[in-house]
Write the structure tokens for this entry.
Amino acid sequence: MTGTVVLDPLLPLWLLYVAAGVSFAGTTLAIWRRLPGWWLRGLAAIALLVAIANPSLQQEDRQPLSDIVIAVVDESASQRIGTRADQTAAALDALRAEVAARENTELRVIRLGDGEGDEGTRLLSALTEALTEEPQGRIAGVVILSDGRVHDIEQAPGVPAPVHLLLSGQAGDWDRRLIVKNAPAFAVLGEQITLTLRIEDQGAAPAAALAPLSIAIDGGLPMEFEIPTGQDVELPLTLPHGGMNVLQFNTPVVAGELTDRNNAAVVQINGVRDRLRVLLVSGEPHPGERTWRNLLKSDASVDLVHFTILRPPEKQDGVPVNELSLIAFPTRELFLEKIDEFDLIIFDRYRRRGILPSSYLENIRNYVETGGAVLISSGPEYGGAESIYRSPLGAVLPGAPTARLFEEGFTPDLTDLGQRHPVTEGLEDFGPAPGADGLPGWGRWFRLIDVFPAPEADVVMQGPDGRPLLLLNRVGEGRVALLTSDHSWLWDRGFEGGGPQLELLRRLAHWMMKEPELEEEALWAEPAGQTMRIIRRTLGDGAGDVTVTHPDGTETLVPLDQVSPGRFETLWEAPEVGLYRLREGDREAVIALGPAAPREFEETIADAALLTPMVEATNGGVLRMEDGAPDLRSVRPGRPAAGRGWFGITPRGAYQTAEVRITPLVPAWLFLCLAGLLIVGAWLREGGRGRS
């Protein structure tokens, strides 16, 4: 209990001040007039003023409050490297024991995990939030248990007590880090881009002039190199295909380094074609020729070279050659010298008439086997003696003609395989709704050339009685497609509602260009934050569970659900950012959620440099956990609060007032009586002087 003298005025203070001024003026006037009782008048005024001021004794019952020590425990990803987690747990237990041994002191433990996404360690933000929840007058000290790698140093709060850092890790730690710079999101196929690589050793690393590096594209066979450490290395690169190219860089783990989480990097670059170069050869004019041309010319990214054979060699009409305006068909230039410059060659109702010698057609076959693409849009000529199938090119075509021609109305339909094949999957959604017979609501075609499909060919569309309509095949490194009808133009003209000719042609072209999103057997994932959509496409009847390998090497089996024929998907929430590997059967994929090496693993060597200014500003100190647990000592405010093997905290002496009592020192009536006596005395003295 404590007591202090306070004033508890009976009137507002401003009235008390007015009364004091009037009393002073009256006393001054009495002195000026030389009244003998002026001093009695002054004492009476003082007695009245004291009575109004009402001096009182204030007594408080105080309950002492404990001092608070805040421990901020860093449990981010970098704190789980090596033995740091065990070090931190042991240091926290020792700190608990030290605080428990002190009187009137308690410990507040703030645990900090990984930030959202790739924010890193938001330690000082967590400390700021903890300080706002505690009375500042009770904070006796702050102890941070961390590796010192914080990513919000600009959020450092003002702390009214010493701040100390217990640093985890070992003094001899070292780590190797792989860095990839200048990686673009898009690149044009065929054009060279340059990436900058760097392998950097941190901490007490052994001397190494060179470090091994492997580079794999889309999970393929890695290429091995050796590059100097600590230097930027320029890597020229040309993307192998369109669509998403996943480049994985890796340097193997060396004995003694802290972690392999920053030994790999994944770069995802979308390969785009500057132009799609297409050669269209029409064997003769027909209603669908203009449709093919319009479809290809409508795409600004297509460079089209179109030739129509209007005057075959056997045509003899007596017109002098010098009067013909037709240009010569540059067969040698197109099919010998510049054939490799084309991405796709389309033969539209082409028949053998001697314009393309067998050697040229054999060259086209070689073009396919080495990676080229050929699309045959056939008409009645495909089943005749002049069929292009009866040439060296026939060895790579997916269907052999039977010489039968069907000219009757039919609605094109997808085969069971076509329901799952990426070229035709979901084509029913384009155009009118399906009819009562279950067939797509597309317009009819009226001609089909009967063919016998090659054993390895995929029949994805069919005509009447299940006869092949669209056949696809892989030959060597190239691809071939055969359309056994020349009536696809009816869809473009909107006959009976039309059909998805543009979408079908687009998919065909992209499949023949080997775009990854149209591969028949594929496994990939689409990231969204820390969630990935895992997608497996297959022509088989089902897909097994996907094995997901986490950045730390642990594995999780993730089942897939069928969402459409041949397509299986699932959404999976990843526990952390980093590089994940997916495997299902013989299919593998790599995906990076956030960076492959998160911010937590950019710099893994424990270092107090970032927190030292904040620690020194509060007279705190830095000690390593490997040196043992520090003692806690009491220090006065402003004094050094750290030394060899000890940390200091500042006792605050905070208390809580439980009760306040105010008692007047002297009763007010007593002051009134005293004032009355003094006034009477002054009157008597002054009155007696007058009588004398």
